[in-house]
Specification:
Order of helices and strands of chain B: EEEEEEEEEEE
Radius of gyration of chain B: 13 Å
Structural class of chain B: mainly beta
Largest sheet of chain B: 7 strands, mixed
Number of helices of chain B: 0
Oligomer: heterodimer
Radius of gyration of chain A: 13 Å
Shape of chain B: globular
Number of strands of chain B: 11
Order of helices and strands of chain A: EEEEEEEEEEE
Helix content of chain A: under 10%
Strand content of chain A: over 45%
Distance between the termini of chain B: 32 Å
């Protein structure tokens, strides 16, 4: 079992749609969780951290479920500019090793 | 922009050669992590440097080595290059804390091994 697993997609959605990504992790001791966005042939950029209480930033909502060991990202009112790969990131110990999922590809169509 | 820079942008080498990649961290950051990202995959952790010492390592062979300098910039060295080393190499800088490990990535170096 991979340490961090994501649905690879791709997800093809029309503008204005709501789309949700899930990510599961295997290490129950994991402490820090993030979603990064990566555009084609570019570096990953932090989208948002994921807190135990959940957090929201505009159209984006992140949730953490420790009992089931998964995190989620919800994008509402999708824009063309949301087209990218979304990477789930887990820090198992709060220390040095950061584990990335393989990413979920999102295409938003006009 | 993150303030993290990497050089060179692109590099072509042949099998068996050695390569050095460079990274300048964001001002105020004391930690640099290196990642290898193969096409269609997520970044894979190579190692991390904190205050000039290796702070942890992923599943990469010893021919992958690194350095961090007093100004917190860093180098990644790869010896005896193999075809499978062709990838995007990313460095990320952060301020090492216990709870917050948000990382800021440089634009990467795309290495092609022929």
């Amino acid at each position: 079992r991979k340490e961090v697993e994501q649905d690879p997609g791709p997800f093809n959605v029309p503008e204005g749609a709501t789309v949700a990504f899930n990510c599961t992790y295997s290490n129950s001791a994991s402490q820090s969780f993030f979603w990064y966005r990566q555009d084609c042939r570019k570096e990953p950029k932090l989208l948002m951290s994921v807190y135990s209480s959940g957090n929201e930033d505009g159209r984006f909502t992140a949730q953490l479920n420790r009992a089931s060991q998964y995190i989620s990202l919800l994008i509402r009112d999708s824009k063309l500019s949301d087209s990218a790969t979304y990477l789930c990131v887990v820090n198992p110990t709060g220390g040095f090793k950061t584990i990335f999922g393989a990413g979920t590809r999102l295409f938003v169509k006009a | 922009e993150t303030g993290v820079t990497q050089s060179p942008t692109h590099l072509i080498k042949t099998r068996g050669q050695q390569v050095t990649l460079r990274c300048s961290s964001q001002s105020g950051h004391n930690t640099v992590s290196w990642y290898q990202q193969a096409l269609g995959q997520g970044p894979q952790f190579i190692f991390q440097y904190y205050r000039e010492e290796e702070n942890g390592r992923g599943n990469f062979p010893p021919r992958f080595s690194g350095l961090q300098f007093p100004n917190y910039s860093s180098e990644l060295n790869v010896n005896a290059l193999e075809l499978d080393d062709s990838a995007l190499y990313l460095c990320a800088s952060s301020l090492k804390t216990e709870l917050n490990n948000e990382q800021f990535f440089g634009p990467g170096t795309r290495l092609t091994v022929l």
